[in-house]
């Protein structure tokens, strides 16, 4: 046979058995498409991530210091040879309001020039310090032009950290800092969860130092690759050393400056004390001199007063004597005057009268002289007394002046005492301040530098693990598909070669070599595999990653998917495809080519009939109809076809059940979470703690309430035995009603006791992620740097978010925090409209936000809808595989039994009876495949769910009974479709041709 005839024969073989050819092509395309799709998905995701972080320069290292950073620190790190760039940045968390007026927490970042570039999606970049771009996953284009308000809920420290109270939104942006759509980090204010971010110029902040230092490495590599980690390892060492040295230098400068200030203060204190002593001595000396002068004056006044009193007494005595003498003389004069009058009237002419009259005159003269002298003395005495009185007045004035001087002295002394006491107090306070400064300086801790790499960024760090989920699935499913493809190819080519046995014998008799003969069939299967491989690889590499990227868009979505083409993977796919097709073809041909041409030209002897196990069950076998017995014998007679059918249909069944199981695991989590676990209907957050708030709240809404539980909530990081750190919510409560609001039960439904002091209860997903079980210890990091070790008292079933529950005693005694519950879990009586109550409660004093669980349930349901892409993908591929396997095996069954079918048709079987006779076996094998595939599907579902890891969601690992029913119906449905298609082939069988002897 010439070359042209040989090629023509190959083409005729292909066109004459197009069904088989397409079956091989389709199953190879399906296997390669699934394999390449899921394998290239990780590559596409990684390529997308790599281009995104390179374009927007995600930091390689983020440094945080207890002292902050200044320009010198930044310059010191940037000077390292392995560092490409280093920039300082400022962050500040503050309370604001969302569109509905509810309180929210925003993290403000300063805009950096070369690292963590802003990915602007709408609007423009800020030009003024009071302008900003905002989180694209929280805000929309409609928000451009509105303002971000720094509300009064913030404390003075937070307000002082920001330059303005309002920031105008001028753009919408994404940031490589936040690659996840929902995770925005934790904070020490509010409930501890950041809701959104904004970027503003550095002038929007008042801080004089940088809160973080961002670094990029000069030597890079593909993200998550060993090359990247090797290249950045040196940079990490250099950056750490440079930052620590700079921090030490800064610490030394701070200590030196503080010491100088303390010494200067001590010198000022010593000088002040010396001055005080001088002033004290001088002042008290002046006061002592003044008092001595006053005492001397007082003594002189007392002495003068005594002298005056003595003189006055003497003069008074003298005056009395003089006055008495005057009175005596006046009395004598009066007597003389009286005698004189009586003498004139009695004996005026006698001599004795004259003499007596002269004597009386002399006596009167003497008396009058004495009287004059006495009166003069009396006048002198009165003058002396007046002088003494004047001197007494003078002394009284002097006495008053002295008393005034004493008063001024006492005031001066009191003022001096007070002033010196005050000065002494100030000096003592200064001394105390210096002692405190010395103590603080001695206790001053050296700066601590914390170096975080990209893996510590929650968005970036979880990206690889999510990409690995798809890659792990690629390690199982493609193998499954390729095994079935190999079985299909083996069965198809074995039957084809058996059918063309006479032609093979003729070729051999004509002198064609075994290689030449085998080459024809290898071309047949190889070309189908090649076309299927190329088509499947291209289609799978395009559409599988796209569908899965959409599914993961519920968590990520920072960029459009970049398609990744792996030439090595393409070569592997082609080699495996060719091995599955040409390898099985070679094995099928090799056995035949061992025989002589004459033996090959003769028909192959049919397999000898054997008794089957069912025949040994006499009471059952005897009750079977003849055709049913024939079907049973045929099923076990062709064991290869039976195994192929059971394995193929079982595999398809397991894939379909796994797909429905994924839907069950995903679809029900919101219902389970918000009806069986979180039994409360509303979470109400207040602006702070108030002892009487719960009582007043219950009183206000007592007619509608059924339960209220009070607690405190914050965000923390937790690490377990696997040294894996995860972010979660810390829930603190001492309210007994908390167990009514939340159902704490393990996987078996057993109720768990609320944790005691030093204990914590965590949810099952968190326990799995950090690798702990009941009784193990966990490390909880709070306030960024503080850590406490707690014992896991129980692990409860939870589906949405991760929680740690502790009691008040643990929070205050173990963590050193103040328990201030500001959140209430609220439940209402049946029939109460939750949204109406939300509107009413929103007006209650102090309410800052309300979260309705019904709304959260709807949100989670919408989020989980994204996984339907993967579910549809799995079920679609499984259905396509089932159809191909059923069609191919059914086609082979009909082809290899054409003579048998023609015989029973000649014997008078109606088409319906003939179809039942042929397809009864297929139906039984389908049922056997379903029976084998259901438990395999259950195991496959559990494996898939263990690989689908979403940090914030714990999937309900369950397959609902209805899914088993749907799986059976889907597989049976494909069996019926194949049955309908192949019945047409039965009707086209030419009885005469089929019954001709192959001789």
Describe the structure.
- By secondary structure, the chain is an alpha+beta fold.
- Strands 3, 4, 5, 6, 7, 8 and 9 form a 7-stranded mixed beta sheet that branches.
- Strand 3 (91-97) and strand 4 form a beta hairpin.
- The chain is elongated and about 225 Å long.
What is the element layout, followed by pairings?
Elements: H1 3-16, H2 18-55, E1 61-65, H3 71-78, E2 83-89, E3 91-97, E4 103-110, E5 119-123, E6 131-135, E7 147-149, H4 156-161, E8 166-174, E9 196-200, E10 212-217, H5 226-346, H6 351-443, E11 449-453, H7 458-474, H8 477-499, H9 501-509, H10 514-551, H11 567-593, H12 597-601, H13 618-621, H14 626-637, H15 639-667, H16 669-677, E12 682-686, H17 693-700, E13 705-719, E14 725-732, H18 738-741, E15 759-763, H19 764-770, E16 777-782, E17 786-796, E18 803-806, H20 808-814, E19 823-828, H21 834-841, E20 847-852, H22 853-864, H23 868-896, H24 898-906, H25 911-947, H26 961-987, H27 991-995
Structural key phrases:
999 residues, alpha+beta, seven-stranded mixed β-sheet, elongated
Q: Largest sheet, described in full?
A: 7 strands, mixed
Helix content: 55-70%
Helix run count: 27
Shape: elongated
In total, how many beta strands?
20
% residues in beta strands: 5-15%
Arithmetic mean of pLDDT: 83
Structural class: alpha+beta
First-residue to last-residue Cα separation:
22 Å
Radius of gyration computed on alpha carbons: 56 Å
Low-confidence stretches: none
């Amino acid at each position: 046979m010439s070359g042209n005839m040989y090629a023509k024969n190959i083409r005729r073989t292909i066109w004459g058995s197009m069904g088989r050819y397409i079956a091989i092509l389709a199953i190879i395309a399906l296997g390669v498409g699934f394999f390449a799709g899921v394998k290239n998905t990780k590559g596409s995701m990684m390529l997308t991530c790599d281009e995104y972080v390179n374009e927007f320069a995600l930091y390689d290292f983020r440094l945080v210091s207890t002292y902050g950073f200044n320009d010198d620190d930044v310059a010191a790190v940037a000077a390292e040879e392995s560092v490409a760039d280093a920039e300082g940045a400022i962050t500040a968390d503050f309370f604001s309001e969302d569109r509905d007026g509810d309180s929210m927490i925003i993290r403000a970042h300063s805009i950096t020039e070369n690292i963590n570039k802003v990915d602007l999606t709408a609007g423009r970049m800020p030009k003024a310090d009071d302008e900003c771009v905002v989180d694209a996953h929280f805000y929309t284009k409609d928000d451009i032009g509105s303002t971000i308000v720094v509300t009064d809920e913030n404390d003075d420290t937070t307000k002082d950290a920001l330059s303005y109270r309002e920031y105008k939104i001028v753009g919408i942006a994404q940031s490589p800092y936040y690659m996840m759509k929902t995770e925005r980090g934790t904070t020490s204010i509010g409930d501890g969860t950041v809701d959104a971010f904004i970027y503003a110029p550095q002038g929007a902040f008042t801080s004089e130092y940088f809160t973080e230092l961002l670094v990029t490495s000069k030597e890079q590599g593909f993200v998550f690759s060993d090359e990247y980690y090797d290249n950045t390892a040196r940079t990490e060492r250099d950056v750490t050393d440079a930052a620590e040295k700079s921090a030490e230098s800064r610490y030394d400068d701070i200590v030196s400056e503080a010491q100088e200030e303390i010494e200067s203060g001590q010198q000022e204190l010593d000088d002040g004390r010396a001055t005080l002593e001088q002033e004290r001595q001088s002042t008290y000396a002046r006061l002592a001199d003044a008092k001595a002068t006053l005492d001397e004056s007082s003594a002189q006044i007392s002495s003068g007063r005594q002298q005056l009193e003595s003189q006055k007494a003497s003069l008074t005595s003298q005056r009395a004597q003089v006055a008495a003498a005057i009175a005596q003389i006046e009395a004598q004069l009066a007597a003389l005057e009286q005698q004189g009058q009586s003498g004139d009237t009695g004996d005026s002419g006698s001599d004795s009268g004259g003499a007596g009259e002269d004597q009386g005159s002399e006596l009167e003269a003497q008396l009058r002289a004495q009287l004059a002298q006495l009166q003069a003395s009396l006048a002198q005495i009165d003058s002396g007394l007046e002088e003494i009185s004047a001197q007494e007045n003078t002394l009284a004035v002097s006495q008053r002046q002295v008393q005034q001087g004493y008063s001024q002295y006492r005031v001066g002394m009191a003022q001096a005492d007070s002033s010196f006491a005050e000065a002494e107090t100030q000096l003592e306070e200064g001394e105390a301040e210096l002692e405190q400064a010395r103590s603080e300086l001695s206790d001053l801790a050296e700066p601590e530098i914390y170096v975080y790499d990209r893996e510590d960024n929650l968005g970036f760090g979880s990206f690889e693990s999510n990409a690995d989920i798809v890659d792990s699935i690629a390690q199982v499913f493609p193998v499954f598909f390729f095994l079935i493809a190999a079985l299909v190819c083996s069965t198809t080519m074995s039957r084809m070669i058996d059918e063309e046995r006479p032609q093979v014998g003729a070729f051999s008799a004509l002198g064609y070599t075994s290689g030449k003969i085998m080459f024809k069939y290898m071309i047949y299967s190889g070309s189908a595999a090649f076309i299927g491989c190329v088509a499947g690889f291209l289609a799978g590499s395009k559409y599988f990653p796209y569908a899965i990227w959409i599914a993961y868009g519920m968590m990520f979505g920072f960029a459009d998917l970049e398609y990744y083409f792996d030439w090595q993977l393409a070569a592997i796919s082609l080699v495996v495809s060719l091995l599955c097709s040409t390898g099985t073809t070679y094995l099928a041909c090799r056995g035949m080519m061992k025989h002589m041409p004459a033996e090959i030209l003769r028909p192959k002897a049919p397999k000898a009939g054997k008794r089957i196990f069912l025949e040994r069950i006499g009471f059952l076998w005897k009750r079977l109809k003849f055709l049913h017995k024939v079907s049973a014998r045929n099923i076990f007679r062709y064991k290869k076809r039976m195994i192929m059918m059971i394995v193929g249909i079982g595999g398809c069944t397991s894939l379909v059940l796994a797909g429905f199981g994924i839907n069950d695991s995903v679809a029900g989590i919101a219902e389970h979470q918000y009806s069986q676990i979180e039994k409360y209907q509303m979470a109400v957050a207040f602006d702070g703690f108030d002892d009487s708030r719960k009582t007043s709240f219950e009183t206000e809404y007592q007619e509608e309430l059924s339960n209220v539980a009070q607690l405190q909530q914050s965000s923390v990081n937790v690490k377990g035995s696997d040294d894996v750190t995860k972010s979660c919510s810390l829930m603190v409560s001492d309210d007994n009603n908390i167990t009514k609001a939340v159902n704490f039960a393990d996987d078996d439904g057993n109720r768990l006791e609320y944790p005691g002091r030093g204990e914590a209860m965590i949810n099952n997903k968190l326990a799995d992620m950090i690798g702990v079980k009941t009784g193990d210890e966990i490390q909880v990091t709070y306030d960024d740097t503080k850590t406490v070790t707690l014992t896991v008292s129980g692990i409860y079933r939870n589906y949405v978010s991760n929680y740690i529950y502790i009691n008040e005693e643990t929070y205050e005694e173990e963590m050193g925090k103040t328990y201030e519950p500001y959140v209430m879990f609220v439940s209402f009586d049946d029939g109460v409209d939750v949204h109406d109550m939300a509107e009413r409660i929103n007006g209650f004093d102090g309410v800052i936000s309300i979260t309705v669980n019904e709304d959260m349930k709807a949100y989670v349901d919408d989020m989980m809808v994204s996984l339907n892409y993967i579910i549809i993908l799995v079920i679609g591929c499984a259905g396509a595989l089932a159809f191909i396997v059923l069609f191919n095996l059914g086609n082979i069954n009909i082809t290899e039994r054409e003579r048998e079918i023609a015989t029973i048709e000649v014997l008078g079987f109606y088409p319906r009876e003939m179809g039942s006779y042929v397809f009864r076996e297929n139906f039984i094998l389908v049922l056997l495949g379903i029976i084998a595939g259901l438990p395999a599907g259950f195991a496959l579902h559990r494996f898939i769910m263990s690989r689908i890891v979403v940090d914030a969601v714990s999937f309900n690992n369950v397959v609902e009974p209805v899914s088993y029913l749907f799986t059976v119906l889907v597989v049976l449905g494909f069996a019926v479709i194949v049955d309908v298609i192949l019945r047409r082939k039965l009707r086209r069988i030419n009885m005469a041709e089929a019954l001709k002897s192959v001789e």
